[in-house]
Specification:
2 domains; TIM Barrel; six-stranded parallel beta sheet; single chain; two-stranded parallel ribbon; alpha/beta; about 260 residues
């Protein structure tokens, strides 16, 4: 398996050998440059592609599930305008979902979080600040940020979240260490809707539905009118295919809360 540890086990000895060859035998620096560039490419690709499990093992899909179920997931809430409308659509179609919440949005939207829980949905940790430099934070800073969100939810709603989705889906060794230290269950996706882009709702819907099958995890955001319109059509499509949305903990048979 191509992981950060396995790659380093290969690249570090090779780098030492290349340096020694360079020192003692005038070995071309070109090969060392190619080696370093390859390492940088792999680690950068791994950082921005949570699905490859390069730095940490995350759950992206469960194709072994017996029932015709998928998991709809929503990032970046709670949103005062759109989350209640998402909840209304889910209730209308008897669908359950998982909401990955940003901590600093929770104090002003406690009633929305309570509604999410009361209607049988699951919540997860999506960092406290969702800062743009999340991938550059030190391990202790990542731990502090995630713990602040976990503690807030536990104090307000008596739920200690186990599920975690990193901001922007970015992973690295420091985030992996924080996840391990806090004993969190990392959750990715295998269908990315890209609903926050400028793509039309038709393109977004097609991107989700063209290969939709049981066991899939769909990434959406409860932050726009466009997503609402996509969601309504998606839920209708799922009904025609006899697909049902369940929470992440149901799909993977894991614990949502400690």
């Amino acid at each position: 398996m191509l992981t950060y540890k396995n790659v380093n086990r290969i690249f570090i000895p090779l780098l030492v050998v290349f340096i020694l060859l360079r020192v003692f035998y005038s070995f071309s620096f070109l090969w060392t440059s190619i080696l370093i560039t390859s390492w940088l490419f792999l680690t950068t690709f791994g950082s921005f592609n949570i699905r490859c499990n390069f730095f940490l093992k995350a759950k992206h899909h469960n194709f072994k599930v017996k029932d015709a179920v998928i998991s709809l997931t929503f990032d970046d809430g709670p949103n005062k305008e759109f989350t209640p409308k998402v909840l209304s659509l889910l209730k209308k179609h008897n669908a359950k979902a998982t909401f990955f919440l940003i901590g600093n949005k929770i104090p002003d939207n406690q009633e929305i979080v309570l509604a999410i829980l009361n209607e049988g949905h699951t919540i997860g940790n999506h960092t406290f600040k969702h800062t743009n430099n999340f991938g550059f934070l030190k391990t202790k800073e990542v731990v502090s940020d995630l713990k602040k969100n976990t503690d807030l939810i536990e104090n307000l709603f008596q739920k200690k979240m186990n599920l975690f989705r990193p901001a922007f889906g970015v992973t690295n060794p420091r985030i992996a260490k924080a996840v391990k230290e806090l004993n969190l269950d990392a959750i990715g996706w295998n269908i990315r809707s890209l609903d926050t882009t400028k793509d039309s709702k038709e393109i977004i819907l097609n991107r989700i539905t063209k290969n939709l099958k049981k066991g899939d995890v769909v990434l959406l955001h409860d932050t726009s009118q466009k997503t609402l319109e996509v969601l309504e059509q998606l839920l209708q499509f799922m009904e025609t295919k006899n697909l049902k949305s369940v929470t992440i903990d149901q799909l993977f048979n894991c614990k949502a809360y400690a």
